[in-house]
Fold each of these.
Amino acid sequence: MSDDKKLIYFDNNATTPIHPEVLEAMLPFFGPKYGNPSSMYPLAMASAAELKKGREKTAALLGCEPREVIFTSCGTESDNTAIWSALRTQPDRRHFVTSRVEHPAILSNVTLLRKLGYRVTEVGVDEKGNLLWDQFIEALTPDTALASFLWANNETGVIFPIEKMAEACSERGILFHTDAVQVAGKIPLNLAKTKVDMLSVSGHKLNAPKGIGLLYLRRGVKYAPFMLGGHQESGHRGGTENVPYIVGLGRACELALAHMEDENTRVRDLRDHLEAGIIGAIPYTRVNGDPANRVPNTTNISFEYVEGEAILLHLAAAGICASSGSACTSGSLEPSHVLRAMGVPFTAAHGSIRLSLSVSNTAEEVETVIKAFPPIIAKLREMSPFWKDDGPAKDNSMLTCETGSCQVCGG
Ligand code: PLP
């Protein structure tokens, strides 16, 4: 791509650009306003005052009390903190409940927990990515220390019924955590009205920098810190607070609240138009995830008989940034665990692309992307051994990663 060509950024679930007003708010704290908020002189007290404001602004987005916000370094730290706090404060309970479609920030803990002798139940989803409710309820036992479920899926955008799930856990005396990294700033939240005990947010998904996150800890919930150190964050997380980034996150939360309506109307319309434009123009495509139950900015589309990574390379050459649901480049032949949990057929899961928009995207960009897809998919299908003329080649029975040789990507 030539340098003067404008980049079209449709990968906002991976990360978002820092909003110029967020950067502007942060800059003085890299310069003259460098005080440590724990110290006792005016320079430090100015930092402490900004820390307080940052906490108030993030709490306003979440609909909780400022003292229920613990600043962390990222969404992953918040997720880990929630899990290990629940297990350490209830040593007699040895069971953890989660879903099959979580982010690795949760699922990597599952592997370790099993090694340590904990029992883990991973609840499934249906073919649209919606939670299997009966399985969820059956999984809750008197031995369950924590149930942790993401609020919206990062790959498909599908939303879990978190308020209802938290109620069910509360009725059974079970702690409930949700990874809200993909919903904060996208859908209205009012935690005071829910039974959610802990919730994770990541700054870089809502136009704040990478390296800042938060954990909401409902007042009265027993807690064991993950980071031991000084008495920062009311003893909930050791380590000098990252004042510039907390100021940035606070401003980003303010802006997200202001843009919420735009996100829910204009961004949703753009996403729906994009999706219909692509699906309408290309045969053998499908949307992964319940179209009626998603965050407004995300679509996940499968292009059968082509490989997601190859599509990404062609999109990148056209200046378009997106993500794929296949993991071939990481050395694994497996397509996304989320799409597999939904039972998406192999030929479709391998060619899946996630497009995630934001309030910065325009209708003109959407039109450009709609036009970019058909020639790319046609070219890749021409090269695919499983495509002939205008449709799939007759025998596609070999298409399986489990055979050890991936016929779609050649891996
Ligand atoms: N949880 C979800 C659902 C995510 O999408 C991500 C990032 O992609 C994370 C957690 C991890 O957040 P962070 O990058 O701040 O650690």
Note: The chain has eleven helices and 15 strands.
Amino acid sequence: MRLQGKVALVTGGARGIGREICLLFAKEGADIVIGDVNLAEAEKTAAEIKALGRKSMSLHLDVTSFEKVQEAVNKILDNLGKIDILINNAGITKDGLMLRMQDADWDAVIAVNLKGTFNCTKAVSKAMLKQKSGRIVNIASIIGIIGNPGQANYAASKAGIIALTKTTAKELASRAINVNAVAPGFIQTDMTAKLPEELKQKMLASIPLAKLGLPQDVANACLFLSSDDAAYITGQTLVVDGGMVMA
Ligand code: NDP
């Protein structure tokens, strides 16, 4: 019960990695708010959380709009009184080689992944500043560290998240708000299921632990960074990738 009595907001928590974070955090004692554009899936995950004996809210939330994010934060504060943990997990891909990449695909990925993380951090950290405590975990990617052909938009958004993590960690540290990032490698989710088989085999061959990661592996890292065990860690990026990228 490492998160007993805490309230966590998980963006994109309806399915995939976000869903796994919600369920693990609930098992560890946290009440959970899922903010997702996919309200139908969010409600299913919220029902699973309630079955674990925790409070759960699912909100339709598009992280690209600061106004909508602020409305959601106000609703959470009215209903649950506080937000102790923010997991900026909502993310999308719209792949294509840089020379052929449409402006709309560049803009959409930056808007959800990078601006969405900024919007939620800005709105939630105001409440955390008053509380003089908080944990923010941003889901980046190893692609933001090493780059990847066909993912200029995604790589730039995730590298931006790593830089944003360091800056917000410095700005918020004096009020005991820790901000860290988790950079997953190749994780078994719907996002990776749609990749071509040839590319999957190539990536698998580059993983020293010789297997794909599971959403639980990412959730475990988020739990550590949100728990008291990580009280003296801020501004860091924890890579969860089976050894693909070693500094
Ligand atoms: P999924 O696509 O499985 O789930 C993402 C969730 O976010 C979906 O419920 C999606 O809704 C929701 N979402 C999309 N856009 C928005 C938005 N504008 N506002 C709020 N919610 C939104 O993704 P994963 O679980 O695979 O990935 C989660 C995070 O982990 C992402 O940030 C991703 O970049 C990162 N990551 C994933 C890796 C992997 O291998 N899977 C590797 C490295 C990083 P909808 O159902 O409508 O799409």
Note: Residues 103-131 form the longest helix (29 residues).
Amino acid sequence: MRIDVLTLFPEMFEGPLSESILKQAREKGLLDVRLTNVRDFARDRHRTADDYQYGGGSGMVMKPEPIFEALEHVGAPVAKGDRTGGAVVLMSARGRLFDHGLAADLAREPRLVLICGRYKGVDERVAGAATHEVSIGDYVLSGGELAAMVVVDAVARLLPGVLGDMESAETDSFYEGILGPPVYTRPEEYRGEEVPDVLKSGHHEMVRRWRRKEALKATLHRRPDLLERAELTDEDRELLQEIEAEDNTI
Ligand code: SAH
């Protein structure tokens, strides 16, 4: 998948893109991230990408022209509602909260363009050219770059072939709408705490059921909101009843 990132700070992406899974995905040709410096499209002598706000108030605003020209340069459609070129995502604290469902939707797009704001944000006319406005959480970052990296990472993990069997996304939190189970590695006993016996039993069916139950238990205790929306099987409902009965006896 090709992902274009429009930013004033392209160097920020170098670290995350050249380690581990994202590095391998790029080497395998599954992920093609292209960084475009919005400042290259600022036409004036001082290469100004921001300006004062209309109406007054503190904080500069990113000008629309360099961003629109950068969009055109990478071949992204800038007309409202034009979806022919995939998704054009504006990183914004005012956007829709990013979650697994949105990551999965974006992973199915033919390509992505991510726009990173800075300062007080970007001129609202840029939002009009975007197909999505996305926030990674209810807090304000200094710029869209870290948010864009979060989106690139979460989307890349869902692209076919990026994760090997060993890392499979299917057993991670949120894949089936609930949290993932706890995991253990060696040593068998550490500082008085033991790895649960069932995981050492070699009994695949018992391990599967234990993991499912622990995943449901964590979700019930930590994120009950997820359970309301998750698609549960008959076995899940049975396991939840067991968990609730156990909780009540403690
Ligand atoms: N004045 C804006 C915040 C600007 S912060 C407001 O009140 O909403 C500068 C830039 O950082 C934004 O343009 C956006 O691109 C990015 N940003 C800040 N918080 C973000 C968040 N939670 N998710 C995604 N992007 C964010």
Note: The chain has ten helices and nine strands.
